[in-house]
Amino acid sequence: MSAKFFKHRKKTVKKHEKRAKSSTKLDTANAKVQGKLGKKKTTNVEKTATPEIDDDNLIVLRGITKRYGYGDTVSYALKDFNLDVKRGEFIMIMGPSGCGKTTLLNVIGLLDRASFGSYFLNGEPVDRLSSRKKAKLRADRIGFIFQDFNLIPTVNVLDNVTLPLVYTGYGKTRREKTADEILERFHLRNKEYYMPSQLSGGQKQRVAIARSLISDPEIILADEPTGNLDSRSAHIVMEELKTIHSEGNTIIMVTHNPALTVYATRVINMLDGHIDTDVKTVRDQDLPQPISVKFNKKEKTA
Amino acid sequence: MSLLLKTHYRLAYDSISQNRTRSFLTCLGISIGVAAIILILSLMGSINRLISNQVKNVGTDLLVVRPSTAKTSELDNIVEELTATNQYMRSNLTLKDVDTIQKLDEVAAVAPIARFAANLTTERQNDDGTSYSHTVESASVVATSTNFLQIQGLTLHSGTFFSESHTDLIPAVIGKGLSLSLFGSSTPVSKVFSYLGQRFIVVGMLAETEDPINFSSVDFENSVLIPIDRLVETDNTLQIQQINIRAKTTGNLEELSNKISNELTRNKSGDTNFSVLYGEQITHPAGGLFQVVSSMLALVAGVSLIVGGIGVMNIMLVSVAERTREIGIRKAVGATSSHILCQFLFESLILSSLGGLFGLILGYIIAFLVSIVTPFAPYIDINILGITLLTSVSIGLIFGIYPAAKAAHKNPIESLRYYR
Questions:
Q1: Nearest by CB to A139, which of B333, B338, B412?
Q2: Pick from A111, A154, A215: CB nearest B332
Q3: Which helix (H) or strand (E) holds B280?
Q4: A150 touches B at CB < 8 Å
Q5: In this complex, is the C-beta atom of B326 within 8 Å of any C-beta atom belonging to chain A?
Q6: Which of A97, A112, B171, B265 ranks highest by number of CB atoms within 10 Å?
Q7: What is the mean pLDDT of residues B306-324?
Q8: What is the chain A residue with the closest CA to B412?
C-alpha cells in the first residue's frame, strides 16, 4: 500500500521479534500440559490421543471445556476442544446454533474463561492470567469484529477507531495519526467526524474492522461480520477481510453462510462443542505471512 | 497515567454534556445542599466577625476573666453556656478577685459584671393624676462598677454615669429600650424604680449602639446598669459572671493574663475554675452559642447534601445501565476493570464538583441578599471554600464508587449481548 502503511508495519516487526523470544517458555508449559492430560487419559480411555504442541502455532487449545450449570442442568458449550491455528490462516467456523462457536471465539478472545483446558497464545499460557493482563492482551494482540458492529453510538468514527489505543497508552496525536492511516485504507477518511448512526451498515462494519486492526493485533476474531449486512455490503466487507488476510493477518471467523467459505484457507464445522469436520484448502507453507515473519525466514536461510 | 486521566475526564465530560438536563438536575441537588451549608457558615462567620470587630473597636488592651470548669473541652463550655449553668450557678468570681486584679500595676481599670434578671417596678401617672404601679418582668440587670462604661466602650445619651456617691437612692443607668418599656418615656433621667425593696434613681441613659452583639453577652438596649458595691450590701448571693480588665499597655497581654491567673489561683487557694481571656479568645464563647446553633443547622443542611448525593448515585446507576453495551465494547477492546471504574468515578466526581461550585455561587448570592436586610455581611473564608470543595468531592466519591464498581464488574460477554 502506501509508504505510510509500510512504516506502520515496520513497527510491528520489532513487536513480533520480541514475541518470538518468549516462545521458549513453551517447552516447559508443554511438558506440564502433557502431564495433565496424561492423568486425564486414565479416566477417559476412549478419548483420542492429544496432538503434539507445535511451538510455531499462533493459537494452541488443548482440552478446552466450557461448562454451564450445575448438577442435572450441566451443559457443555465446548467439550474437550483441541485446535491449532497457524499464523496466516483464515479460518471459517460453521455449525448449527448452540454448537459453541461464539463461546469458542470468546475463549480465544480472552473474554471468557474455559472451565478446563489450556490455551497458548503465541507459545505463552494465557488461560490463568489476571483479568488485567488479559485486558492488556486484548488491547495489544486481539481484534474483535462483531455481527452488530458494536460501535459506541455517542462518539464519532475517529474516536471509535482509536478506542483500543486509549487503553494501550498512546497519546492523542499518535492515536489520531494511526487512525488516519487505517481509515484512509478503508476509504473512510472523509467520514472521520461522522457519528456511527450516520453511516450505512457496510460502512459501520468497515469502521469496526478498522478498529480491530488499529493496534496491529495477531488474531482478528470475527463473529458473523456479514450477518447484518445486505449481500453487496457483505461482499465489500469480505473483500476487505481478504485483503487483510493476504497481508499476513490471522483471521478466525464464525459464519452461517456457506458461500463465504471460498475466502477461507480452512473450514471447521462444529457440532455440540467439538470439531465435526476440519478441511484445509491451502497448504500450510502457502499461507500468507506477516512481513516480520518473512524477514526472519530470509535471515535464517541467508 | 496522566494521559488516561485526561481521557477519562474527556469521556466523563462528553457523557455529562450529552445528558444536559439530567446532569443539571443532579448538580442542582448537590448545589442546594452546598448552598445551605455555605449560607450558614457565612452567617456564622459574619457574626463572629462582628464580635471580634467590636473587641477591636473597644481596644486591644482588653482582658476578660470568666468562670469555667477548669481544663474541660470547648464543647463543655458551650454546653454550660447553653444550659446557663455558667452564668447562674458555677461562677465563683468574687469582689475580692476584682480588688486583687485592681491592685496589679499593669491594670488600668477593672469592671465586674453580675448579670441577672429581675422584676422592676415603677410608679406611673395616669392622665387623671392617679398613680399606679407598673412592673417589667425579667428585665436584664447588670451590676458593675464605675469603670464599666470606659471598658465596655459605651457612651451615654444623656445624664451621667453612677459614681460612688452615698445617697439613699441607688443610681442606675438604663438602656433606651428598657426605659421605654419601664417608664414609657425616652427621657428616664431622675425617674425612680424599685427592685426587692431597694429604690433606684436613673442618672443616665445609654446611647444606642450599632453592634447588636458584644463580648459581654449583654443587650445594653434592654438593660439597666447598677453599681455592684451597693448591691452587695443587700444581696450577698450575687455572682460575678465576668470581670472586664483594661491593661495599661497593649503589649504583653499574655504575660498579664498569666499574672492575673496566678494571683486569682492564689486567692482561691489553688482552684483554677476560671479562665483569663484576651484578644480573639474573648469573642469565642460569645459566639459559642451561634456556633452550636449553626452547627446544628449545618448538620440539617448536610442531610440535604446526602439526598443530593443519593441523586448522583441514582443517575450514575441509570448511566451505567444505559451504557452496559459500551462497557462491554470497551472491555472487549482492552479496557481493564479499573479503567471502567475510573471513567464512571470521574463522571460522578465532575457532577458533584460542578454541583459544589454552583452551590458556592448560589450560597453567596443568598448570603448577599440576606446582608441587604441584616447587618451580617457575607463572610468569605478559605476554610469555607475548602470545606465546600472537600464535601462535594467526597460526596462524589462516596456516592459514585458503588455505581462505578458495578460498571467495572460487568461481564463483558453479557454486556455485549445487552440490548436496550
A1: B333
A2: A111
A3: helix B280-322
A4: yes
A5: yes
A6: B171
A7: 93
A8: A111
Strands, E, within B267-355: which ranges? 274-278
- Those residues whose C-beta lies under 8 Å from the C-beta of residue A128, and which sit 6 or more positions away, are none
Mean pLDDT throughout B83-88?
48
Query: A122-136, B141-155, B252-266: which has the highest mean pLDDT?
Result: A122-136
How confident is the model over B245-304, as pLDDT tens digits? 888 877 777 788 888 888 888 877 777 777 787 776 766 555 566 677 778 888 888 888
Nearest to B67 by CA among B277, B247, B212, B242: B242
pLDDT per residue as tens digits for the range B110-119:
888 888 888 8
Write out the three cell numbers for B378: 457575607
Q: Report how many domains make up chain A.
A: 1
Distance to chain A for B341, nearest Cα, Å? 13
Nearest CB to A150 within list B334, B338, B416: B416
Q: Kind and range of the H or E element at A40?
A: helix A25-43
Per the CB < 8 A criterion, the answer to whether A252 and A244 are in contact is: no
**Chain B residue at shortest CA distance from A220:** B333
Closest CA to B297 of B13, B43, B106: B43
Cell digits for A96? Answer: 448449527
Whether B408 contacts B338, CB under 8 Å: yes
pLDDT, chain B, mean: 81
User: For residue B193, what are the contacts with CB-CB under 8 A and spacing of at least 6?
Assistant: B120, B121, B122, B172, B182, B183, B199, B200, B202
Q: Do A138 and B334 count as a contact with CB atoms less than 8 A apart? A: yes
CA distance B66 to B89: 13
Please give the residue of chain B at the shortest CA–CA distance from A212: B333
Chain B touched by A283 (CB under 8 Å):
no
Does the predicted interface ipTM exceed a cut of 0.90?
no
Chain A residues whose beta carbon lies within 8 Å of the beta carbon of residue B330? 152, 163, 167
Give Cα A288 distance to the centre of its chain: 15
**Grid cell in block for residue A7:** 512504516
Distance, CA of B17 to CA of B90 (rounded, Å): 62
Nearest to A144 among B4, B332, B337 (CB): B332
Query: Which one of A150, A168, A171 has the shortest CB-CB distance to B334?
Result: A168
| Strands A266-271 vs A116-121: parallel, antiparallel or unpaired | unpaired
* % of chain B exceeding 90 in pLDDT: 23
Which residues contact residue B371 at a Cβ distance below 8 angstroms, ignoring those fewer than 6 apart? B46, B377, B378
**Minimal C-alpha gap between A152 and chain B (Å):** 6
pLDDT digits (tens, 9 = 90+) for B184-211: 888 888 888 888 778 888 888 888 876 6
Q: CATH code at A159?
A: 3.40.50.300
What pairing do the DSSP bridges indicate for beta strands B156-159 and A250-254? unpaired
**Cα separation, B218 vs B112, whole angstroms:** 13
DSSP notation for B217-267 = ---GGGEEEEEHHHHHHH-TT--B-EEEEEESSSS-HHHHHHHHHHHHHHH
The pLDDT assigned to B40 comes to 86
Instruction: Tell me the per-residue pLDDT of B23-59, one tens digit each, with 9 for 90 and over.
Output: 999 999 999 999 988 888 888 888 777 777 766 766 6
| Nine-digit cell string for A290 | 506477516
User: What is the three-class DSSP state of B52?
Assistant: helix
CA distance B171 to A166: 86
Chain A CB within 8 Å of residue B15 CB: yes
Nearest CA in chain B to A214: B333
User: Using CA atoms, how far apart are residues B52 and B57, in angstroms rounded to an integer?
Assistant: 9
Amino acid identity of residue A159, one-letter, is D
The whole domain housing A187 covers 3-301
